[in-house]
Amino acid sequence: MLKPYVKTTTNKGVATIEFFHPAHNSLPGNILADLANSITKAGEDDEIKVIIFKSGGDRTFCAGASFEELININDAATGKVFFSGFANVINAMRKCPKFIIGRIQGKTVGGGVGIASATDYCMASKFASIKLSELNVGIGPFVVGPAVERKLGVSGMSQIAIDANTFYSAEWAKQKGLYAQVFETVEELDNEVQKFAENLCNYNPEAMKEMKKVIWNGTEDWDQLLAERAEISGRLVLSDFTKETLKKFK
Question: Domain 5-187: which topology?
Answer without folding.
Answer: 2-enoyl-CoA Hydratase; Chain A, domain 1 (3.90.226)
